[in-house]
Specification:
Nucleotidyltransferase, domain 5; 2 domains
């Protein structure tokens, strides 16, 4: 299996300064490579510059500017150029698919927060042998940085990434050949239905409350954002007070993200420990939270008809706050590690199908929480009915596989 481990770095003042300089110089390399591609396409008869062409120039760039570019790992600079190449590949893919293209943008120093070393031992070295009771990672141009390793690293370290979040630094290790850790088989299968009122409901009737972390921090977040908006545009990012206000907003968002991840990890681990097979809905959260298309008013040129965007805004916010997609990813990872199985099933009509007689109708779901079959009169909670139907469809998949 492939796993990623994320640990907090404890750099000294000089090491933190060197890490910031490393990000700044890699950002400069990224922007310079992007500018070269733009100029080549615009002024040289639409010539396309590729990764191979720019990688060849790295030796000259490092020799021309040894103070800023020559001090860092050659392979990490190649990874930065590959990052730009992937951005252009995704851009052309979206153009061919007819989607919103999103041309690659220049990165500001505050928005370029990660540097990747493609191979352990090439410009970096993960040293799992503690020195002075501390694990360290060696980075070219920075030195041996202390790592707060809160759990053992299993498997073989393939790539090492250094990431900045606010004023904190982290190291991310991508490892392969990670052994599985199977749990005892409880002999249970369950279906889960995701929701907004409750985070999830199981086919056994259990409900996990939706913590609504964004709503809980809405007051503090709104106050911090209002304070940030009071700074005029001409002074933004130029004063110490504006930078402090921006850091406060980012700190609140980071806290919400950590709370959500902690909740998802605990809920997923509880399901994996108690069930062998977990059936879940195959949800398209991006489509569910997409803003409705505007409706032009034929009687009023330039005007638009109501499309329900304001009414759906609250639902979209609640779905994004719940983070269903992130939860499904965490659940799949934990299930794979514990030798469990997660079966995604079609989510259509799971809350409109009667689990007793199989009757499907929109009228079966009387309210958001109440289900009453118009054919047989079966009465139950709508989320519980959805979980039962998910369990039934997961069982059919198991039978077909057998």
């Amino acid at each position: 299996m492939i796993r990623a481990y994320r640990f907090r770095l404890r750099p000294t003042v000089r090491q933190a300064q060197a890490l910031a300089e490393m990000l700044r110089d890699h950002c400069s390399l990224y922007n310079g490579a992007l500018q070269e591609r733009r100029d080549a396409y615009r002024h040289t008869s639409k010539t396309t510059v590729r990764y191979g062409d720019q990688s060849v120039q790295l030796k000259e760039i490092r020799g021309f500017d040894p103070e800023r570019q020559g001090r860092w790992s050659f392979s990490s600079q190649q990874a930065t150029l590959r990052r730009l190449d992937k951005a252009f590949a995704a851009f052309f893919r979206r153009v061919k698919a007819g989607q919103t293209p999103g041309y690659p943008r220049f990165k500001g120093v505050g928005h370029f927060d990660a540097v990747t070393f493609p191979k352990d031992g090439d410009g970096c070295r993960w040293d799992s042998t503690p020195h002075d009771a501390q694990t360290r990672v060696r980075l070219q141009g920075v030195g041996h940085v202390r790592v707060h390793q809160h759990r053992p690293v299993r498997g073989r370290v393939k790539t090492v990434s250094v990431k900045r979040e606010g004023r904190n630094w982290y190291v991310v290790l991508a490892c392969d050949q990670v052994p599985a850790e199977p749990l005892p088989a409880p002999g249970s299968i369950v279906g889960i239905d995701m929701g907004v009122t409750h985070f999830l409901t199981t086919s056994n009737g259990e409900e996990i409350a939706n913590p609504r972390f964004v709503e809980a921090s809405a007051h503090d977040l709104a106050e911090a954002q209002r304070h940030l908006a009071t700074f005029p545009k001409r002074t933004r990012r130029r004063t110490k007070k504006h930078r402090a206000a921006a850091r406060k907003v980012a700190k609140l968002h980071a806290k919400i993200r950590r709370q959500r991840l902690d909740h998802h990890h605990k809920a997923a681990l509880d399901l994996v420990r108690r069930h062998d097979v977990i059936g879940c809905e195959r949800l398209n959260t991006a489509g569910m939270t997409k803003a409705p298309a505007p409706k032009p008013d034929p009687e009023q040129p330039g005007g638009f008809l109501p499309n329900g965007a304001a009414a759906k805004a609250g639902l979209h916010r609640s779905i994004l706050d719940a983070g269903w997609g992130i939860f499904f990813g965490i659940l799949a990872q934990k299930a794979e590690s514990a030798a469990r199985r997660v079966i995604p099933v079609d989510a259509r009509n799971t809350s409109r199908t009667c689990p007793e007689c199989g009757h499907v109708a929109k009228e079966n779901r009387v309210t958001q929480a109440k289900f009453e079959c118009t054919a047989c009169g079966f009465l139950a909670n709508a989320d519980h009915v959805g979980a039962l139907n998910v369990l039934s469809r997961a069982g059919l998949v198991l039978c077909d596989a057998a």
